[in-house]
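TA notes. Do not distribute before section.
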Amino acid sequence: MIAQSYLNELTAYTNAKIVKVVLNDTVEISNFLFKETAENVLTLEYLVPMGTVATVSKMELKSSTGAVVSSRTVNVPIVEDTIMRHAITVEEVSA
């Protein structure tokens, strides 16, 4: 079993790595409304202003070097200013 303190450390490391969100491979957002860790959960929020994209079909969280930390295919129409929220849980998985 992985110690909770180590899971918290990995969560903080992941938080430090993520510096931007890239939507649909073209729109970069680096201003987070909220970005913090609590225990082994990283939560971040950012604003997608209306008119930026019609529909978000792909969301990537990236590091300062451009490496993808997380990627997700979605289908989110943007019909008004929209706050997107990610919650990433760092946990042990047993095989």
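Switch to the second chain here.
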Amino acid sequence: MTITATTTPDTDTLTANKRLAVAFLDAISDGDVAALTAMITPTWTMEGGPPDLPAGQEGIRVLFAHIGGVEQRWTIDDVIAEGDKVVVRATNHCEQDSFFGVPGRGIVQVFTATFTMQIVDGLVARIWRNAADLQRLFQLGARILPPATMRPSMP
């Protein structure tokens, strides 16, 4: 673990950062790509999302192309801010055509996620996403099977 010394933002800055983080998730819920691209730095990145996501505005566009058809709503459970970071714990209710290739049309998925957002000069510079994606797959009926070599043979 790396601990770095930073200057402590004032209460107004922490409050503004919290509002930005919540607004970011609201814009995701609304599928508002234009609003999202206005809230990020040119070098924005996200860890814990689709692999090889480009930086900046192109990354937001690729993210939404990857998500595909979805109706979703994030409900904010907690927002905590310290230094240049805001942590948001949220619950998502969504219906998506498919998730990781598992069909999902007509199935409402409910899952939680934690987003740690680094805010720089009033914009989201980086997001670390940690979500219950395995929970979503199980809700869609996915099953984990052992490799064929470990399965009992059938008579």
